[in-house]
């Protein structure tokens, strides 16, 4: 398995609820911890990653800042529609440090993953890096 959540693996950010030209959503999939997507305030905020095909996802590791409540949703449709919740999480505050959260999954089939940030510890949250372990699925 490898990180299927990288732009270099063909993954795209097909939707983001906010965008700042200095901190664009594409920073989420560049594989660099020092770049990030910064929300523009208010909640919920969300972004959708679209894979090149349906994948079997086994683990999602998220590096973020100021996220309080988060849900992970999946879709197996051709377009990013008809999502269903896979996991929900409440993250502890981190006093200025990066938060690291993992969703341990077992071959969850997905063509698209939606990350919905329901609330934060501040008006702004940042998503720095995602590591999505998975492989092509044989639906």
Automatic annotation (TrEMBL):
<protein>
    <submittedName>
        <fullName>HSPB11</fullName>
    </submittedName>
</protein>
<dbReference type="GO" id="GO:0042073">
    <property type="term" value="P:intraciliary transport"/>
</dbReference>
<dbReference type="GO" id="GO:0005929">
    <property type="term" value="C:cilium"/>
</dbReference>
<dbReference type="GO" id="GO:0005813">
    <property type="term" value="C:centrosome"/>
</dbReference>
<feature type="domain" description="F5/8 type C">
    <location>
        <begin position="16"/>
        <end position="130"/>
    </location>
</feature>
<dbReference type="InterPro" id="IPR000421">
    <property type="entry name" value="FA58C"/>
</dbReference>
<dbReference type="InterPro" id="IPR008979">
    <property type="entry name" value="Galactose-bd-like_sf"/>
</dbReference>
<dbReference type="Pfam" id="PF00754">
    <property type="entry name" value="F5_F8_type_C"/>
</dbReference>
<dbReference type="InterPro" id="IPR033558">
    <property type="entry name" value="IFT25"/>
</dbReference>
<dbReference type="GO" id="GO:0030992">
    <property type="term" value="C:intraciliary transport particle B"/>
</dbReference>
